[in-house]
Amino acid sequence: MTNPKGRFGIHGGQYIPETLMNAVIELEKAYEYYKNDPEFNEELKALLNDYAGRPSRLYYAEKMTKDLGGAKIYLKREDLNHTGAHKINNVLGQALLAKKMGKTRLIAETGAGQHGVATATAAALMGMECVVYMGEEDTKRQALNVYRMKLLGADVVPVKTGTATLKDAVSEAMREWTSRIADTHYCLGSVMGPHPFPTIVRDFQAVISKEIKEQMLEKEGRLPDAVLACVGGGSNAIGSFYNFIEDKNVRLIGCEAAGRGIDTFETAATIATGRLGIFHGMKSYFCQDEFGQIAPVYSISAGLDYPGVGPEHAYLHDIGRAEYVAVTDDEAVNAFEYLSRTEGIIPAIESSHAVAHAIKLAPAMDKDKIIVITISGRGDKDCAAIARYRGVDIDE
Amino acid sequence: MSKIQNAFKNGKAFIPFITCGDPDLETTAAVVRSAVENGADLIELGIPFSDPTAEGPVIQEANIRALSGGVNTEKIFGLVRELRKDITVPIVFMTYANVVFSYDPEKFISICSEIGIDGLVLPDIPFEERDDFLPLCRKYGVDLISFIAPTSKDRIAMIAKEAEGFLYVVSSLGVTGTRSEITTDLESIMKIIRENTDIPCAIGFGISTPEQAKKMADISDGAIVGSAIIKLLAQYGKEAPCHVGQYVNSMKSALS
């Protein structure tokens, strides 16, 4: 029997058509080489620092802390990165890797549009062609990001199949990759898909927890008691968790999108409602029916509106190292407004799911405890949608 | 010896692909019978999946039509039981890994064996990921079909050496769907395959005309056609069986 590759416990693997096998093997070999190449790492560090604005701030949210009256709250400000989200960390790494591999064209899927914008940005910077696949439903929810991608020189292809959301955008990007491999790198945006993507994306996002650790030791002289992040595919969450996995006293809490509630069909909370399956190149948990048909999931957040979860999260859940909680649309929208009013920071609706759970968690913790919330992106893109949710119609 | 090899004893094999339940199971049964009467040597029955990532628009739509018509794995097992009362040509299931995995692979594959399914085609299970299915397929005598793609290169020998039933050779990059021209150097690929295995090889993806089918079958052992047949189903619906029959007849004639 062959040796399964890229496993996190029973999860992960490479469940893809034969047509793509040599492409992922080539990618894995290139990554194994360049991740230890000092020149590659220097170039990437320069891009992250000088272009993307790293390290991102770890900000003590004093008003929020006092208002909630419990644990001390810090915000990891990934929203301050260039392009407004953590997605740029991964994209700069993958684009640089693709360039070293001689690829001239990047394709990507996007949900909220943040990964699409980041990929279009990296393509513009590095002189590469770029095509972004985006569910038609999401092109409507996130019209501003569609315009930004086009402004950056990318083609945006609206995907009309299925639920016309993130899952369908991933399927279409995979289909496109099988038809054009030689010059094209599929710049996958989350810790999902076939090996080596969950590992590559995690490594490029792990800079978040590396910085949190350093900044926390500098500011508080100790590690935090809990780290919270939102989970769709799970890239900002794994980035926020990764360097704390061995620090068993740090609680790692992933916040999934419950949509209208985990007891309804309109939810995207995979760990709460899904079961083991094989889809989009990986074995992991998926929302599906009794015959294995993938469920049409729902969340107000286009970035979390995905029926699966990255295989490393599935594993961290299995072994009990990370906790996963479900946060509804209502709670997320309240948190979106709360952080805007309380700290003058408008978080992405995705990140608002983590803020919402912190609002519940912090008051129940002692004042000498510390929690960190990763604000994975900025919320400007969501203002029109949240206004609509509140019954206000505004022109974008 | 695998029953699938019988499909390759009557000259070059013609293998139609049909999505079960498109537009309903009665039509699927009639289409299968019409195809067999007109010379189909092996039937590839698709169990629809919500997100068929290896399919082009034509088969994607067939999957949607079938699922919205209410078909499911149980009902498709029933269809095969019904067909096996009179249909003797080999039949394989084509579906996505999650359909089998979610049902419980052992239960699924043992039922396949019991109802007369000879092989399983899973486009999202490459050579390295066969462990969830291969031991069970061997236990119950169902062939797990392997793919060779235009990009397989150094993998061809490895895959061919362990292939069972028949080898599914993918003619072109990309997803399923008709193509005006097939440009892959399939002769070179076939040469490496032949050096490594004796099992039959059928070429699929992009084939729609009798000329293309003949060209592909000349260098292999048969041709697989999906989208061109599904287009007839989309066009004629419940009236499709006789049209599919005529089409299969023209294709099989071109191969003879």
Contiguous helical run count of chain A: 16
* Helical proportion of chain B, percent range: 40-55%
* Backbone shape of chain A: globular
Q: Greatest contact pair?
A: A-B, 40 and 45 residues
- What is the topology, as strand order, of the major beta sheet of chain B? 1-2-3-4-5-6-7-8
Number of strands of chain A: 14
Question: How many helical elements of chain B?
Answer: 11
Distance between the termini of chain A: 56 Å
Oligomerization status of the protein chains:
heterodimer
Summarize the biggest pleated sheet of chain B: 8 strands, parallel, barrel
Query: Uncertain regions of chain B: pLDDT < 50 for 5+ in a row?
Result: none
Helical residues, percent of chain A? 40-55%
Note the run of SSEs of chain B as H and E.
EHEHHEHHEHEHEHEHEHH
- Could you say what the CATH architecture of chain B is? Alpha-Beta Barrel
Total strands of chain B: the figure is: 8
**Can you write the helix and strand succession of chain A as a string?**
EEHHEHEHEHEHHEHEHHEHEHEEHEHHEH
Description:
- The complex is a heterodimer of chains A (about 400) and B (about 260).
- Chain A is an alpha/beta fold.
- Chain A is built from 16 helices and 14 strands.
- Chain A has helices at about 20-35, 40-50, 60-70, 85-100, 115-125, 135-140, 145-150, 165-180, 195-205, 205-220, 235-240, 270-275, 310-320, 330-345, 350-360, 385-390, and strands spanning about 5-10, 10-15, 60, 70-75, 105-110, 130-135, 155-160, 185, 225-230, 250-260, 275-280, 280-285, 320-330, 370-375.
- In chain A, the strands form 3 sheets. Chain A has a 6-stranded mixed sheet, sandwiched between helices. A 4-stranded antiparallel sheet of chain A has the order 1-2-12-11. Chain A has a 4-stranded parallel sheet with strand order 7-6-5-8, with helices on both faces.
- In chain A, a hairpin with a 1-residue loop joins strand 11 (about 275-280) and strand 12 (about 280-285).
- In chain A, helix 14 (about 330-345) packs across helix 15.
- The termini of chain A are far apart.
- The mean pLDDT of chain A is about 95.
- Chain B has one domain (about 10-250): Alpha-Beta Barrel (TIM Barrel).
- In chain B, helix 1 packs parallel to helix 3 (about 75-85) and helix 1 (about 25-35) runs parallel beside helix 11 (about 240-255).
- In chain B, strand 1 (about 15-20), helix 1 (about 25-35) and strand 2 form a beta-alpha-beta unit.
- Helix content of chain B is about 45%, strand content about 15%.
- The interface between A and B is large, with 40 and 45 residues.
